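User: Before I run my own analysis I want an independent prediction to cross-check against. Here's the chain; please return only the structure tokens and, at the end, one sentence I can use as a sanity check.
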Amino acid sequence: MLQNYTAKYSKIASGYMGQLIEWPEVVTEGKDIEECRMMLRDALNEMLLAYKQQRKEIPLGGALIEQVPVEVQEGAIQKSYID
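Assistant: Structure tokens:
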């Protein structure tokens, strides 16, 4: 069965970080976006294998992603909160 997952890529100092939206434990890095995509696919395959071996439920893919526009006033201070 073919299952689609949604990847999110973020630019980081060492290149790119990739993570699956539906399965946040699947995360990796690459020096460029292409390497990150390849590494993310490999990480997903490894996680699928591990979950099957441990008889864990595999998260379903197919998340709906949309952008939410918001106007940010110039000079606004961004705060970071740590749980």
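Sanity check: The mean pLDDT is 89.
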